[in-house]
Amino acid sequence: MRFSVLGSGSRGNATLVSSGETHILVDAGFSRRETRRRLAQSELAPADLSAIVLTHEHGDHARGAGVLARADGIPLWMTGGTLEASRQFLRGAEVVHRLRPGRETGIGSLRILPFATLHDAADPVAVVAEDSATGLRLGIATDLGRSTAQARHFLQDCDGLVVEANHDEYMLWGEAAYPAAVKNRIASSCGHLSNQAAAALLDEIWSPRLSAVVLAHLSEEANTRARAERAVEGPLRRRGFRGVLHVAQAATPTPPVDLAALRDRPAPSQPSFL
Ligand SMILES: [Zn+2]
Ligand SMILES: [Zn+2]
């Protein structure tokens, strides 16, 4: 099982998840041309996609879904509420399947388990993708609002996690040039997760099988890659995490992460005191 965050931030989000010949996009917030360009870095084209799974209807997650579905014959998966709220991106010619929070769905060799989030969209979900053959699990949770018991339940025991680290709390209330109403919305329980909240979530759901973490959906006004990484890396490493940590960028895909290779790598040798 491999994945790459093709891009993440308020201008667009899409994560490629692959298992054998099954390739899916979780969210499609880029134009078809831009999606094609980013997929090419994994030597794929839109027509190779088995499905697009939408977490919610906000443009930065959904604006490319309709055109990709129509032009390349890619089926879409989303909740009923997301479908109703996504009409602006759809023309009725797309094949749309229903996602139900808490209920697993098979797409090729992947199992997709969506769960509800508190974000301010019609019927938003985050997802866990599980490789049927290997049991490897990848959680993708951006636009969380806040961490809930439900989110912690579904995201525990994952091998890989794409987790929102949207803003640094001090930058948001200090130098960020957002109007007060936007700051309030971002910081609210139905807005976005801060670096500090992401670190607390990772501290709670960390398990020895976690081998890859990608921080995502960074605000351009109220965060930096260094701040996001600093907030999360120390607490994670102290827990015993020795995997890879990436920060997803808006403009370029993260390097592909191979969860099977990370799981199968040898344990570090014990220091010898003899
Ligand atoms: Zn959103
Ligand atoms: Zn978003």
What features would you describe in this structure?
This protein has 274 residues and is an alpha/beta fold. The chain has one domain: 4-Layer Sandwich (Metallo-beta-lactamase, Chain A). The protein is built from ten helices and 14 strands. The strands form two sheets. The chain has a seven-stranded mixed sheet. β7 and β8 form a beta hairpin. The chain binds zinc ion (2 copies). The site of one zinc ion has 5 residues, from loops.
Radius of gyration over C-alpha positions, nearest whole angstrom: 18 Å
Q: What is the mean predicted local confidence, pLDDT?
A: 95
Percent of residues in helical segments? 25-40%
What about the largest sheet? 7 strands, mixed
Q: Which strand order does the major sheet show?
A: 6-5-4-3-2-1-14
Number of strands: 14
| Named CATH topology | Metallo-beta-lactamase, Chain A
CATH architecture descriptor text: 4-Layer Sandwich
